[in-house]
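Why do we care about 3D structure at all? Because function follows from shape, and shape follows, mostly, from sequence. That is the central idea of this module. The next example makes it concrete: a single protein chain, its amino acid sequence, and then its structure expressed as tokens.
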Amino acid sequence: MNDKSYVVFPLKRIAASIYDLFLLLGVWFAVGSFAVWINGGIIEVKWIGPSLVLTSTWIFYGYFWTHGGKTLGMAVWKFEIYSIDKNKINFRKVSIRFFSNIITVLLGGIPLMFMYFSKNNLSLSDYLSKTSYRKI
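And the structure:
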């Protein structure tokens, strides 16, 4: 970990995620409204809704993490994402981080506890995506 590294413990990560959740609700509403409008008021295929939510969420985080390194929730809590291996943050790293964070949520946040046992205080998603946080 370099001298600019900043340990963001689970409570702060969760708080920023809740902040971003409210922004995502607006995105989901807009995407869902557009999908219903395109289909004439009815969406008969049940998997379209969840796939739209997943895709729009991935695009939301992908855009903000690759353009500026932070979402609005992360900016409020004054931290941003950066690449540990000094490479630019790309959609591959964002995708690894995004899907490992989904696994973290599904497992009730238990993979976040990996940071307490890691030498560099990295969570599982930090370790897998080779990204971490720094203070702004």
